[in-house]
Amino acid sequence: MDHGPLQRKLGYRFAQATLLQQALTHRSHGTPHNERIEFLGDSVLNCCIAQELYRRFGELKEGELSRLRANLVRQETLAELARELELGTYLRLGEGELKSGGFRRPSILADGLEALFGAIFLDGGFAAVQDVIRGLYASLLEHLDPQTLGKDPKTLLQELLQARKIPLPQYAVVATRGAAHKQLFQVECQIPQLAIHTTGFGASRRIAEQEAAQLAFAQTQK
User: Fold this and answer.
1) Domain 154-220 is found in CATH 1.20.1740.10
2) Within 13 Å of residue 195, how many CA atoms lie on the same side as its CB?
3) C-alpha dist (Å) from residue 129 to 38, 101, 140
4) d(C-alpha 114, C-alpha 215), whole Å
5) C-alpha span between 105 and 188 (Å, rounded)
6) How far apart are the C-alpha atoms of 124 and 145, rounded to whole Å?
7) How much is the pLDDT for 181?
8) Which residues are catalytic?
9) Is residue 16 within 8 Å of 111, Cβ to Cβ?
10) pLDDT tens digits, residue range 176-212?
11) Where in the chain are the domains?
12) Which of 90, 98, 63, 112 is nearest to 7 (CA)?
């Protein structure tokens, strides 16, 4: 399989292709698999995110920083970032996992992304993996509000609607512009019960959805 598109999205090219291959190999496929590298990547990710939060939020206490980090490195966040990379199409899974849709399972996607971080660390060092993590997390870090404990706009909107017993919002991509490597997504968020209809734009579907959710959340506060 050609890993070029994945490496371009990561913004990193491996010198040791075997490390990339191992990072993408689930234990159901055989050995060597990615569990040990995933263990390393988990620690590297936590360190990088902790450093970014420490640098950005000098006024926050340890407990507040810990809660922000927990939300940024949780399985759901990692799985969403992995989907943006289309990581599932590159994972090497056993026949059983393939048939059961393992390439879409959040736990497998999250573990695979952490394994990639570990492999980049082994291949290029801490500075290299730090650059990759900063790039992937750029939008999340930019829109991070300490008052919400690091929860992204989609999560905040979902929790608010669930508390009010209102059906979850509907997201739809209504347009994409630009070349494949530099697309701009236009996403609509609709909450018919509240007559809310917002539009978000971004370099990925995830970013556009988050912007649309942020606008929708703001309207619920009026």
Assistant:
1) no
2) 1
3) 13, 29, 17
4) 31
5) 25
6) 32
7) 66
8) 42, 114
9) no
10) 988 766 789 999 999 999 999 999 998 888 889 989 9
11) 4-148, 154-220
12) 90
- Return the structure tokens found at 95: 């026949």
As a whole number of Å, the end-to-end CA separation of the chain is 51
What global pTM score does this model have? Answer: 0.75
Q: What is the pLDDT of residues 127-186, one digit of tens each?
A: 999 999 999 999 888 878 787 766 788 988 999 999 999 999 999 999 998 876 678 999
Cis preceding linkage at 32, omega within 30: yes
User: What CATH architecture does domain 4-148 belong to?
Assistant: Orthogonal Bundle (1.10)
| DSSP characters over 29-81 | T-SS-SHHHHHHHHHHHHHHHHHHHHHH-TT--HHHHHHHHHHHHSHHHHHHH
CA angle (137, 172, 98) in 5-degree steps: 70
Q: How far is CA 9 from CA 30, 43, 121, 157, in A?
A: 26, 22, 17, 28
Biggest alpha carbon–alpha carbon distance for the chain: 55
Give the position of tokens 């929708």.
216
